[in-house]
Design goal:
Largest sheet: none
Radius of gyration: 26 Å
Strand content: under 5%
Length: 363
């Protein structure tokens, strides 16, 4: 028989659970920066493990020396990128008027006027459409100073974050065996073999995935630079770098990169005639970018997204599509690693399931 005391105790337990969950979420929110540091460190660890193993097994370094050399290699690559891109972005960013909000607004209004004239010359009454929509009066770039301030704040805390990430990564690489021993003490003996096998397989697959992803972005960046240089687009390296970074977002990223490249190409050539110079160059750049994306979609992405995580290209496409509907762009970015982890765990713990057997036959 349910008494009032039982009901009140149930309500109190439910309230206590809700309060504890709320406090936990609040705590996670407060330490979100630390969680991000740990996630970045885990990714660097996955990338660094094959390098560390190379130093240990091929060059016969001891574990500590191999760990230090791997970390120094990361620092060297990061320093090279900073030395290569920061001066370039600062100098070419000035040419793009990235820091002059008034100039940005002026340039885009001028570009809209040139497009309007071009369309009018081809019997399209775009001026009336622009006037009715009042688009030029709606252009407001006052958000840019706030955005730049947030970037400056991020840069100011970059040193702390970088030091934290490198420190955490060092111990993830150095004490990997210690962490495994610690996990073995926590998990039940009956599931120890499955958990350790899952860990090793996930480590191997995701290491290949992230290394391949870096290689893919570098190849796309070089191809974008070549396209932009061929057609004489100013600020080629900066535009190519921004567009290559967008390729982290599967399928959607290249489309956004094409639009961004078209806009920046037109803004970079504003002093030229729209019909005879700006428009043809922009079309050529778009064609070049689409060719790069065809190469990437048919060579780089299948190799990275499929072979590195042992999944069929259609399978990966559907996973990314579903993740995009559920969680937006962030879901698309993390879809492949999360799906890989789920597949590995499923294979270890439910090996007799027919669906899991079908999905994990290559793992």
């Amino acid at each position: 028989m349910i008494t009032s005391k039982i009901i009140s105790n149930g309500i109190l337990r439910a309230l206590f659970t809700i309060i504890c969950c709320g406090l936990l979420l609040f705590f996670v929110y407060q330490i979100q920066s630390i969680i991000i540091y740990i996630i970045i460190s885990l990714i660097l660890t996955l990338i660094g493990n094959p390098i560390l193993n190379f130093f240990k097994h091929k060059l016969k370094f001891n574990h500590l020396v191999a760990t230090i050399v791997t970390l120094l290699l990361f620092i060297g690559i990061l320093s090279s990128l900073i030395m290569m891109f920061i001066p370039l972005i600062v100098s070419q960013g000035a040419n793009l008027s990235l820091l002059n909000t008034a100039q940005i607004e002026k340039d885009i209004i001028l570009l809209i006027d040139q497009i309007s004239v071009f369309l009018n010359d081809h019997n399209i009454d775009s001026a009336k459409l622009l006037k009715e929509s009042n688009i030029t009066s709606k252009l407001n770039f006052n958000f840019i100073p706030n955005f730049l301030n947030s970037i400056l704040n991020t840069i100011s805390s970059f040193g702390v974050g970088l030091g934290s990430v490198l420190f955490i990564t060092f111990f993830f690489l150095k004490d990997r065996l210690m962490f495994i021993i610690g996990v073995k003490k926590i998990i039940p003996i009956s599931h120890e073999e499955q958990v350790l096998n899952s860990f090793n397989k996930i480590n191997g697959l995701l290491s290949r995935y992230f290394i391949g992803l870096l290689l893919q972005l570098f190849i796309v960046f070089l191809l974008y630079v070549i396209v932009l240089l061929i057609f004489g687009v100013p600020n080629a390296v900066v535009i190519a770098f921004l567009c290559a970074v967008l390729n982290i977002i599967p399928y959607v990223g290249p489309l956004i990169a094409s639009v961004l490249a078209a806009i920046l190409t037109m803004l970079s050539n504003l002093g030229s005639n729209f019909q005879t110079e700006i428009l043809p160059v922009t079309i050529y750049v778009l064609i070049g970018f689409w060719i790069v994306q065809v190469i990437d979609n048919n060579v780089s992405q299948p190799l990275i997204f499929s072979k590195s995580v042992s999944s069929h290209p259609l399978e990966i496409f559907l996973v990314i599509l579903i993740a995009g509907f559920l969680s937006g762009i962030l879901g698309m970015v993390i879809a492949v690693p999360i799906y890989t982890i789920i597949k590995v765990i499923g294979k270890e713990f439910f090996p007799e399931n027919k669906i899991i057997m079908l999905l994990t036959k290559d793992i």
